[in-house]
Amino acid sequence: MKHNANVFLPRVFGLFGIKEELELIYTWYQKEVGMMLPRGLLFYGNSGCGKTLIIREYSKLFNCPIYEIEGDLEDLNKEIIDIYDRASKEKMAIVIIEEMDKLVRDDDKLARILQTQLDGYKERPHVLTLATANTTECIPEALLREGRFDRCFNVELQGKEETEEVVRGFLSLVHLAIDEMDIYDLVDEFYRCPPIHIRSAINGALLRKGKECTADDIIDSSYFLQCGTMPNRTMLEVDRRTAIHEAGHAAYLHFFAKFITYGRIYFTKTGGFTTIQHSTKLASIESNNEIIQCDLAGLIAEELLLGRHDFGVHEDLDDAHSRAYKLVNMQALHGASFHCQTSQYCRPSQEMSQIMMRRFENAAAKYVRRQYKATKRLMRTIEKDILRLSEFLLENKKASKQDIAKILG
User: What is the CATH number of the domain that holds 387?
Assistant: First the structure.
């Protein structure tokens, strides 16, 4: 529903799906329909993704009293009760809770008090609670069930279309004109970056170069935010990083893989690519583990030899998480007990509920982290081989099976 992307919450860029749902909820509240309205909205995600901006801009629309649970008073439990009592006396009121996961993480009593206040909506049907959290893992499931926090939104830019709106939006805020073709270079650069990083990079370039700054200046500013120094960009540096990344994939395949084999490496204008060949049907957990570890080997090679990995590894990380998610979804990791534990949240012919999806996502993320640690231990033993192969790639821009056998033995 992109038609209202620039009309509803105009200062919140991207996040089309979230804004569409928020607009619908806002409409319900304006109509005062007889049905049970959503009572609590939770926005979770990494720092800088825009959670606070959303609740601040959204709460302004209702034109009603806003109460904030700050969490810095000595008696937080009393503060929560008092705020909800005051909000209940209003015709319409909003309660804001920032970083709710930190408040309830180690305080079961506080979580129960908050549940009690949320359950009291029969007496106060027009109190809407807006909360933020970095993660939902520390929040009791009882708080996330229907009737309390009815909607949980993962605040993350989805796709390049949303990234493009964020880039254009921040450029418009500072009245900075960038060539149309350069906009797409910025979108490629900032794809998968949080909005705060995009805004900081644009502001940094504007401060250094003024209104004459270019897309390259903004990209350099982004590099500065990551590394602390301005880049001295040469194609040789870009090619070296690419060579090390692809050498990591190839070296892992050569030394450690049993189910998948090396194909070839080749460079293009957009980067390097390592192809693999399936030597068996990829049905077992072990074979899927190898593909996940191979996905991670490139970024690990960058970390070992360069000290950090670049934003260009997002596709490898997406592939690793996607495969781990499918393994969890197929119960290959958890078996029947996990399915029975979560099946209550899923009805036939309907999409799995948000609670079940969160469980799968958390399990997949933890699994990828375990594979990352295991792969890094392996890759440390072949650092010299990775370096030797990367030097060959830097010079030749390709490597065949015969080349790999000759270089790595």
Answer: 1.20.58.760
Largest Cα span, the chain = 79
pLDDT of the residue at 311: 57
Integer Cα distance of 347 and 353 in angstroms: 9
Please list, residue by residue across 42-64, b when 16 or more beta carbons sit within 10 angstroms of its beta carbon and e when fewer do: bbbbeebbbbbbbbebbbeebeb
- The pair of structure tokens assigned to 128 is 């809407």
- The tokens of 371 are what? 């594979």
Domain-ending residue, one of 203, 227, 251: 227
Closest by Cα among 40, 19, 34 to 128: 40
Q: What is the DSSP string of 244-302?
A: HHHHHHHHHHHHH-SSEEEEEEEEETTEEEEEEEESS-TTSHHHHHHHHHHHHHHHHHH
The answer for residues whose C-beta is within 8 angstroms of residue 33's C-beta and 6 or more apart is none
- In this predicted model, what pLDDT tens digit does every residue of 342-372 receive, in sequence order? 444 344 434 445 666 677 778 888 888 899 9
Range of the domain at 378: 235-408
Is the domain of 13 the same as that of 80? yes
- Residue 151 near residue 55, CB atoms below 8 Å: no
Reported confidence tier of residue 236, pLDDT bands at 50, 70, 90: low
Pairing of strands 260-268, 271-278: antiparallel
Give the other-Cβ count within 10 Å of 215's Cβ.
19
pTM (predicted TM-score): 0.56
